[in-house]
Amino acid sequence: MASTYLSRTSGTPTSQKIGTFSLWIKRSKLVGAGYEQWFSSGNSSTTDLNNRWNIKFTSTEQIELFNVSGGSTNMKLLTNRVFRDVNAWYHIVFAVDTTQATASDRLKMWVNGVQETSFSTSTYPSLDDTSCQFFQSGKIHRIGAFDGSGTYPYYLDGLITHYHYTDGTAYDASTFGEYDAQNVWKPKTQPSVTYGTNGFFLKFANAGSLGTDSSANGNDFTVNGTGTQTLDTPSNVFATMNVLNPQSSGFTVVNGNLSLTANATNAWRTTYGTLAVSSGKWYWEQKVTAASGSAHYIGITDQDENRSSATNDFENANVSAYCYRGDGGKVTSVSGSTVLTPGVGDSFTTGDIIGVAMDLDNQKIYFSKNGTWQASGDPTSGATGTGSFFDITAGKLYTPATAVYNTGSGYQYNFGNGYYGTTAVSTPNADGAGYGKFEYSVPTGYYALCTKNIQTYG
Question: What angle is formed at CA 3 by the lines to CA 352 and CA 208, rounded to 5 degrees?
Fold first, then answer.
């Protein structure tokens, strides 16, 4: 959500003692310093820190919930464990019920269907406490920020979907999630719940306006800033670029880890994808946002050999890597040697979209420029490999990779989410399974790099 957040002023609640929050959240980066706020509630004065409700990621990557009323903290849970996965979705549920006789039953937390019981700090509300700032009338509720563009913005950089709030009823995680046939925890798309007066259900992902309440209440939120809706969901995770690899520190990474710009001084750096495969046929696209001649490498590397130090893995003899270079050449680094072949395809520059078709069943890889397959390539030619840039070494686990040298060089990736940065593709094309939104037609038999396709075709 970056600098986008949603806001709404609450009405008179059904209850000031009982409520449940359930949401799915996917991180785009680690906090490092400050906070990343999922949800807050407080007075109209954004700097009033004496009366507030917060749920957030801390600078140490823990999850924290707390309520301050009249300057005193009377509710708080701070997890012992940390949450550092930027590829997976987390399902988080908080239930408040101050009518419970046992203090620890008055504030509960679940992560991916399992109740969290180990906390660094745990402060439980008193019996029949009514001071929760979220349960008050006239409070400003914000999703994705603390006070928006005010003194303490604390924006969330990530994705949210299936956000429920039930006003007046406490539920556990099984109300909102369940295990699928592969024993993966997934959302219940229409849970049987009572929302109460202030309750809401925000779907976010691929379901109309970002702030539209899908419950019967019509408690819509106002969208502040520019957000995008992604096809990435808890049930089907799409590849992004991996910000946890130390090389990613050489890039400014935004838009859900799909827009990268080289920062600092001129130096080689390679960035890698979050999903890797050893079989099947896969397609994705990259848009060049800032070119720097030959110092652009688009392709794949063996995930097991990804580096953490500054390097160009496409010219590193110890790595199985294959790429299309900015000047139209191709580079391979495999079997102890690096080979550059010039003039294989057209050169590419700012604004060009490069398509990658990776055939790991026949060990071939093809590249297109603005929809035209280079070297008269035919990704559907199978073992013949017509126009293939390389014969790929079999038995490796390959992931998308890009290397750049010059400061300011940049790319926007589309693994099927349908956006370059915050701009939607102009003519959406899905793969044969119906997944993804690409600028150009997906070759027959190739699929978007997402978890559902990997389960079926990988």
Answer: 75
CA–CA dist 239, 416 (Å, integer): 9
Would you state the structure tokens that stand for residue 297, as one six-digit string? 């490498």
At 369, list the tokens. 């420029």
- 435 and 447 in contact (C-beta within 8 Å)? yes
For the chain, domains (ranges, CATH) are 5-224 (2.60.120.200), 246-457 (2.60.120.920)
* 458 residues of the chain, pLDDT tens digit each: 567 889 999 999 999 999 999 999 999 888 877 889 888 888 766 667 888 899 999 999 999 999 999 999 999 999 999 999 988 899 999 999 999 999 999 999 999 999 999 999 999 999 999 999 989 999 999 999 888 777 788 888 888 999 999 999 999 999 999 998 888 899 998 999 999 999 999 987 544 578 899 999 999 999 888 777 788 889 899 999 988 876 667 888 888 889 889 887 888 888 899 999 999 999 999 999 998 778 899 999 998 877 766 678 888 777 889 999 999 999 988 777 888 899 999 999 999 999 999 999 999 999 999 999 999 999 999 999 999 999 999 999 999 999 898 888 999 999 999 999 888 898 899 999 999 999 999 999 999 999 999 999 98
DSSP state of 383: G
Could you give the CA distance from residue 391 to residue 371 in angstroms, rounded to a whole number?
Answer: 22
Q: Is 157 exposed, middle or buried (0-12, 13-18, 19+ CB in 10 A)?
A: buried
Kindly state the tokens that stand for 247: 């090389």
